[in-house]
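Hey team,

Filing this mostly as a record. A colleague (T.K.) asked me to run one chain through the structure pipeline before their review meeting, and I want the input and output archived in the tracker in case anyone asks later how it was produced. No errors, nothing strange. Just documentation.

Input sequence:
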Amino acid sequence: PPPADPTHRPVTLRDLLSHGGSITVHGFPGYARGNERPTLLQVLRGTPPANTPAIIRDGPPGVAMRYSGGGFVILQQAVEDVTSRPFSRYMEQAVLRPLGMRRSTFAPLVARPRPEAASGHRADGLAVDGAWHEYPEQAAAALWSTPSDLAQLVAEIARAYTGHSPVLLRQETAIDMLTMQLADAGLGVFLKRVIEGSPPARQLRPEIRFSHTGGTEGYASVMIGYPERGQGIVVMTNSDRGGDLAMEFVRAVAAEYGWQDLMSRERTVVEVPAAVRTQLVGAYDIGDGRGFDVTEEGGALRLALRGRESVALLAENDSTFFATMPGAPDIRFERDSTGRATLLVFRVEEHVMRARRRG
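Output structure:
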């Protein structure tokens, strides 16, 4: 449970769905197959054999958006408490089966063997030990699916949002899902207001694009929908580096269908003096033990999520950089009066994340 604080209002389901509850634990590494798995209560409390810390509230809700897989574990527990059913069974009966998502499940594959399940792969091309990890944090990380099945979900959200014969969702629910709550977060998805190429008068509200990426050990995916256009895309890969490939597909489809907000950008690259590069190298922390490392190799800067493979950074000027992979954020260094970097700022559309330099 969250710490008692009379100055904070209770955390609501809306807070949890929009990552606005100030709930800790960003994501989950899962458990190698055959290893002991914790119960949901052990995950919530952060007690062995759970491999993540306790999920708690560490600030006031409704103030800022901070991605929290931990919040969805709380939602999972709430569903089980209210329905008196395992989360995976409830989701199959209430969501997956009605939407025709017959090749999707939240249940561990050891319980429901699927020989066609793709093995996850690391950035170096080696398979994940045991082919994949298992996740008792089902609401946050355990969905097994296919692109065709997830497309059924994208289509249902679009049908409900526009009022065109939805199967499961009410229109008011879909509109609520696709209304910005905090920053770019809707309810369960992330949103972008589309300015260019908006449909004409039939549109009752600003056109919106909803999306969510997926990333578990050895897998990466992306789901995007334009409900007013009745268009969208789902790409799933079985590699830690698959997000790059997925976004290549997205850019290609964006060019074909005129999704101007997702088309590739042209940039001009400049040389950064060695003295400036030295002022940018360092470790940058974002909290929860996570962070980024900026290094210099062969006269060029590289960026890595701590513990992961690095990517090359190209400079637009002495403070603004980008990576060559599609969908990569704009990267800006904030510097003090001496020129030394103090903050690393990532921006993807309206979403901004800051990492403070250590030391």
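Quick notes for T.K.: The longest strand covers residues 208-216. The chain has a mean pLDDT of 90.
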